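Why do we bother with holo predictions? Because pocket geometry can differ from the apo form. Keep that in mind while you read this record for LLP.
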Amino acid sequence: MLWPDTTERSPDGALVIGGVAVADLAAEYGTPLYLFDVATIRARCRLHKQALGSAYERPKVTYAGKAWVAPALLQLIRDEGLNLDVVSGGELYVALRSGFPADRIAFHGNNKSPDELQMALDAGIGEIIIDNFDEIRLLDELTRGRSTPVTVLLRLNPGIDVHTHDYRKTGIVDSKFGLGISTGDAERAVQAVLDTPGLYLRGYHAHIGSQIFEVEPFIETVDTLFEFAGTMRDRFGIVPEEISPGGGFGVRYEEGDPDVALTAYAEQIGRAATLAAERWDLPSPVLTTEPGRSIVGPAGVAVYTLGARKVIPGVRTYVSVDGGMADNIRPPLYGAVYTAELVGKPSVGEMEWLTIAGKYCESGDVLIERVALPPSRYGDLLAVPAAGAYCLAMASNYNLALRPAVVFVEHGTARLVQRRERFEDLLARDIAPEDGYRT
Ligand code: LLP
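The structure, written out:
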């Protein structure tokens, strides 16, 4: 599960994904190039749906679009019957323009602007996940005069810690996200929503973090949400229709990473929800999971061209690629570890240890700290697996880099779904000086 499901090596050792030779794609579309295996995306959607569906009677799987959104992807997500979570007006705009049904979209975020909330209301959004009291006040103002209330969930902060990078922890008490249960904010927010005629409180949500490899924190989250729901039922007489313990299921980035057995996870999360509903004597609510990384991460591969080589005797050998932190900021930002293989030959036989550096003007722009590769030359192609989530989504124009092209591969054919940025795109937002641009 490190590489897309359809990955193979041809008899001459060349990397083939989705039935397409990766070298041919690089020749046609240039590098850096991001390719996605459609079969893997579909399989991951189905796996999540089936796993939760066989573990719990009222399952709902929502794709967390922050991992990466684009019209071509959203079409697959929609067709596979998943819902969508967006976190900004931009994501909502792209989703709506892609034809994603508004009533299957949930809107998250800790500081949604009045304009973003208005946009969501105008679109007829399925759910708004309220994060704080200011949002309740804004929604009160924006929903005055509406005939039907807007469906909302409350994002709770359950005070649960997880083993992941500090930047990816979102369920600890000291987090900008969510209404604290322990501080009493969560209960006060229930009261405030019940006092707001324009809002219908459908249930409770929590998201504890990302790239999590243990199931226990998810179970603890489910238990905490149900306990809160049971307490609120006793206090206010409200029965939740939906409980969402969020996303965050880890994926493998290198061989040594553990495998998240999603079916076993879903089974335990589903069982925990069933037991908790019984314990609190609540009719089974819809149980929602929100995978992002685990849907697209393993489906994506980044392809680079090897460039300059710098040998520092007794220290290390740097080989630079034609991308780096502008298309994948995860290594410098989180210390994320990736692996790679040459597109032209498998990693067997004679190997050398290399550090793969990016091309941007930062010493921290190192894509892979240490990887063993067969002997390579300037111009060879390098493929990095597990690059589908939070790479393109966090890509920038740093050093005025052009963001990469994106290709979907399936059944031996390739489809360009996003073209590479062009130099003209870099001037698209500038107001031309009086004498215009040089052509
Ligand atoms: N639901 C909510 C409310 C979230 O905030 C997130 C991720 C997800 C679901 C999906 O989590 P996933 O299944 O993808 O782990 N940029 C970081 C990850 C940030 C995650 C933000 N929230 C990274 O590259 O590791």
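The chain has two domains: 8-37+297-427, 38-294.
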